[in-house]
Amino acid sequence: MHRKKLSLAAGLAGAGAAWALHRATHPDEAREPMRLHGGDRDEPVPDHLLDLPEGVQAHEIATDDGGTISYLEQGEGQPLVLLHGITLRSDVWAPQFHQLTDRFRVIAVDLRGHGGSKAGREGLGLPRLAADLANLLETLDLRDAILAGHSMGGMVTMTFCRDHADVLAERVAGVAFVATRASHVFPTVAAPVFRNLVVRARERLETDGELPGRGEADERLMRMVYGENPNPKAVRLASEMGSSMDPSDLIESVDRLFEHDTREALRVTDTPSMVIVGTRDVLTPVPASRALARLLPDCDFVLLRRAGHQLMQERPDEIAELLTTFADRLAGDTAVPG
After folding, report:
1. Tell me, what's the pLDDT at 15?
2. Domains assigned to the chain
3. Alpha-carbon torsion angle 72, 77, 82, 88, nearest 10
């Protein structure tokens, strides 16, 4: 019997279609006026911004369950801790190392199961990744830090706010949620499809020891999560990151996202925050990000015109400006530009 190729990237495309249906059937979610920020980019981000600059240092720390957490670091000043999304790595934040190390001590983390980080006895899952974040903040003795979490990295940050409120209060000045959501990672209409995809992928891995459908096909599908006019190199790098991820870690990471729901905790998280989303994001679209912003008691909400999901690669100039202005706001009382 012919087996269909399995591709988690194809599932991402399916999620985008599901959200398009959701928005069409729930129009009230998008009726509020939008705060738009930044101009339209006529040219893709320059190639050199997508590679790490010279001088970035790689380090690792141990976890309490026998794992290791790798991270990149450069710069001095207020700590800025960057957490990537699922299938990505710390070096996806290369543009921010170019643009923000003159103001911040930039620290980009490989979440366990990604990049150079290795899971310990407790495996994967958002609560364990949140514990790793708390461990990093305490081991490096970071104070007055700003956390910026993209996609799954934002969900890790939300879980950290829920599970480690004492560390949050002691060591974090503000939180930026970049293209992420507070709950329902897979919308109701798409969740059964994703669950079936995870089951089939796990069965295929156990049978054949590999997952087909990774590589060039995933690069074409990866392009769908970007907005207008992305740099092809950015798409290629993000696809390569996903293709290099251990298949079992990929499956487990996706599977554990079904449990994500931090809405109750965020309602009582009074740490100053900012939510940033692109108007063409098909994975964490505007209604989901607006719902996240409404949960947070002290939150700025910013939309980037014509941008997709990979905001750190697509709109580094705007991200740099927003994070810098957010830090100024935390130090005083300036407003994030709208």
Report:
1. 44
2. 8-331 (3.40.50.1820)
3. -30
